[in-house]
Design brief:
With 131 residues, this protein is mainly α. It is 77% helix and 0% strand.
């Protein structure tokens, strides 16, 4: 019973990380460019970069849903691969957009929340899989 309880607690940590990413996406992310992730995705000249911005929010929502389902449902077995794929897509797509377009911009509250959310979700994912 203790092992199941620890796994559920780590699912909360992982889900909280993805929730921070989702919240941060709706807030201003970059300094002088301003706007939420949706506004930034709409302003990007390249379709691929806009899609990468949308991939951040979609993968964060998928990770959040997977985390909530793994917390609530004892009978449903969700593959750990789904959480890893959501996390890798979320982080990789966000970093590609940042380093290719906005590496000189300062992070605002939304960008900092996204960064903290990535770290929390990554720690929750690593620790939950090592048990």
């Amino acid at each position: 019973m203790g092992r199941r309880r620890a796994g559920a607690n780590l699912s909360v940590v992982r889900a909280a990380g993805f929730l921070l990413v989702v919240i941060g996406f709706f807030m201003p992310i970059f300094g002088r460019l301003g706007g939420s992730g949706f506004a930034i995705a709409g302003r990007l000249n390249f379709l691929f970069m806009g899609l990468l911005m949308y991939a951040v929010i979609v993968s964060a929502v998928i990770g959040l849903v997977v985390g909530i389902l793994s917390m609530l449902s004892r009978r449903t077995k969700i593959s750990p691969t789904v959480g890893w794929v959501a996390l890798i897509v979320c982080i990789a797509s966000g970093l590609v957009v940042f380093f290719s377009r906005y590496s000189g911009a300062s992070l605002y509250t939304g960008g900092i929340l996204i960064l903290i959310g990535w770290i929390v979700a990554l720690i929750g994912q690593f620790v939950s899989r090592s048990r």
